[in-house]
Structures are given as structure tokens and as C-alpha cells.
Amino acid sequence: MPSHPDRTGGGSPELRAKGRGPTLDRNLRIELMMSYRRLQLQFKALIKSISEIHGCADIHLLLLSMLICHQEISLRQLAELAGVSESMASIAVDELVTRGWVNRVRSSEDRRRLVLRLRTEGAQFLHHVMGEGSQFDEIISQVFDLTEPEAQFLMQLNERMLGNLQRELGLFQSISGLQG
After folding, report:
1. Pairing outcome for strands 114-118 and 102-106
2. pTM above 0.85, yes or no
3. Is the pLDDT of residue 157 over 90?
4. Contacts by 54-61 with C-beta closer than 8 Å and gap 24+?
5. Contact, 70 vs 54, CB < 8 A?
6. Which of 11, 42, 122, 174 makes an SS bond possible with 101, Cβ 3.0 to 4.6 Å?
7. Would you say 59 and 67 are in contact if contact means Cβ atoms under 8 Å apart?
8. Gyration radius (Cα) of the chain, Å
């Protein structure tokens, strides 16, 4: 079994050289990671249920949501943002085009390049399914039963952990010669 860098004594000298030990008990760190995993699975189950009720796939809602934020985006960029293969994104986009929710158009910056653009019908569908007053919105409002300061503090903690994870992953990959 390969050894993995850890700040508890083993691992690479580069990681140990940082001079910081873990601030949380190992079991608590694992519990915290598993709680994020359980949250992710529950959110995924919610999106899947909501999408099935509205006659589409969960990836359709994901891609439509991303197209709200990114007005002109290539298929490759959309797949990368969604964390899915280009092939899976292509199949889902074909379905979105067929439903009249997305257009493939020439880029306004480079006429050789095809980009995806959300149509008004797609935005309306997404608003109906996930917008203010929707069943999804009601459920999420109950899930995030937090005060504004609690939510802001949670976001700060999440951003801090995300930054730490990105930094450590980059260091790990550079030490071990892996690409991310």
C-alpha cells in the first residue's frame, strides 16, 4: 500500500517542513469530510427528485444553471465547470437544444467558435423549477435554516477549507509529480 503524506509524522519532508500539525483530531477530520459527503449526496438526491418531477434529468438543471451565469461558453468549458465528461455534456446539451432551451451559436468574439447560449425558454423553465417560490426554493429555504451571520460564517469556513485543500493538493501534486 502506498504511503500518503500526512502531517502526523509520516509523509514527505516538504509537507512536514511547513511546521504545522493538524488542529483537529484525525477522527473528527474524517467525520467532517464524511458530513460534507453526506450533504453532497442529499443535495444530489434532491436535484434528481426535482428534475424527475419536471420531466428532465438532473444534469439538465445543472447545465441550465451554469448557462445562467455564463452567457457564452463552449461545450468543453461547460463540461469542465459541471465536472462531467465532454461526451456526457454533449449528450445533455443535445437534449437541451432539442427541447428549445439552449442554442448553439457562433461566438461573437470568434466566428469560427461554437458556443452555447441559454434561450429565454430555458431560463423560464429553470425559474419555474428552481426559482423563487418553486418547490425547490421552499425546500432549500428550510434546509438552510440559518441566520445571515451563520450563513456568512459557514461560507467563510467553507472558503477557507477550499483554499487550504487547493493549496495542499497543488503541493502534493508538485511533490509527487502528478497533474491535476
Report:
1. antiparallel
2. no
3. yes
4. 54/125, 54/128, 54/129, 56/99, 56/129, 57/92, 57/95, 59/84, 59/88, 59/89, 59/92, 60/92, 60/95, 60/96, 60/101, 61/126, 61/129, 61/130
5. no
6. 122
7. no
8. 21
Instruction: Say if CB 67 and CB 105 are below 8 A apart.
Output: no
Residue that has been written with the C-alpha cell 451563520 in this structure: 150
- Cell 493538524 belongs to which residue? 22
Q: Where are the domains of the chain?
A: 24-148
Percentage of residues of the chain with pLDDT beyond 70: 87
Integer Cα distance of 61 and 48 in angstroms: 9
* Fold classification of 24-148 (topology level): Arc Repressor Mutant, subunit A (1.10.10)
C-alpha of 35 from chain center:
16
Q: How many residues does the chain have?
A: 180
With DSSP H G I counted as helix, E B as strand and the rest as coil, what are the percentages for the chain, rounded to 5? 65, 5, 30
